[in-house]
Amino acid sequence: MWSPTEIGVLFAGGLFVGMLVMLEIGRRLGSRRLADDPEKARAGVGALEGAVFGLLGLLIAFTFSGAAARFDDRRHMVTEEANDIGTAWLRIDLLPAEAQPELRDLFRTYLDSRLKTYAVLPDRRAAEAELARSVELQGKIWTKAVAAVRGAPPGPSGTALLMSLNSMFDIVTTRTVATRIHPPSVIFVMLALLALISALFAGNAMAEARTRSWMHLLGYSMVLALTVYVILDLEHPRLGLIQVKDADRVLIDLRQSLGPIGGR
Fold first, then answer.
1. Is residue 40 part of a domain?
2. Using one digit for the tens of pLDDT, what is the confidence trace for 26-77?
3. Is the peptide bond before 154 cis (omega within 30 degrees of 0)?
4. Nearest-angstrom CA–CA distance, 244 and 264
5. Are 165 and 145 in contact (CB under 8 A)?
6. Radius of gyration of the chain (CA)
């Protein structure tokens, strides 16, 4: 199975080659029209070209803006998870002293698992296996916390801890779902079609020149292909050139502050 990064590279590469081909086809078609009707070959086509180029720009802006927003959301979720784990960790102090050490070790193991879930990427199978281990640890933490709360004196302390655990577990589901939310494939197909059609029109507009301007042909194709690749890369951070590992620093710092397993 191909990774999203490999698909993105192939998609952008294919788009680059396809646009060069369409530019050449458009140029040849334009040259024929100029030969048949030198004076009115371009009459009335400006509005059509403007509509296509405008729609292409709008679609690129839409997809890029959406991908960038989802990228920022994923980074914010890392901070949110660190805050939820840190809050739950502090509220362990509300439990009886004898119940705290085992629960704290489970927290340390759990945070190690959460960090490893994303550290093993782009190995998706290993990431899914580690995610399953994190979910298993959630069950153990919840069981131990409920038992400790039942053994504690009546009061709001137990409720506060359990609510923190709920938030700590819920953000994992939120982050997991966020990695799977992407625009429908038809949007990228439409983007590619518009790019190819725009290349056809651009080539037609360049037919009046006697020689090809390779700087413009290659530059236009490369800029659009790279833009599409960046959009696809933003949609799949951690799997390509764009990463959110800087945001993981807050979780790493939190793990270091919790101390080694077996500590207090």
1. yes
2. 988 888 877 766 666 555 577 788 889 999 999 999 999 999 999 999 999 9
3. no
4. 31
5. yes
6. 27
Name the 3-class secondary structure at 215: helix
- Asked if residue 144 lies in contact with residue 104, where contact means CB atoms within 8 angstroms, the answer is no
191: tokens are 């983007």
Interval 126-130 mean pLDDT: 93
Report the percentage of the chain scoring pLDDT > 90: 59
Token couple for 159: 């409720």
Which of these, 47, 16, 83, lies nearest to 224 by C-alpha position? 16
Contact call for residues 119 and 131 (beta carbons, < 8 A): no
CA distance 84 to 218: 49
* Residue type at position 116: K
DSSP 26-83: HHHHHHHHHHH-TTTTTTTHHHHHHHHHHHHHHHHHHHHHHHHHHHHHHHHHHHHHHH
Task: Give the residue carrying structure tokens 């281990």.
Answer: 133
Q: Output phi, psi for 95, to 5 deg.
A: -85, 165
> What is the domain extent for residue 238?
4-258
211/167 Cα distance (integer angstroms): 64
Q: How many domains is the chain partitioned into structurally? A: 1
Residue 264 belongs to a domain: no
Residue 63: both structure tokens together: 């997809």
Longest dimension (CA), the chain: 95
- Is residue 263 a part of any domain in this protein? no
Angle at 7 between CA 6 and CA 12, to 5 degrees: 100
* Residue 252 lies inside a defined structural domain of this protein: yes
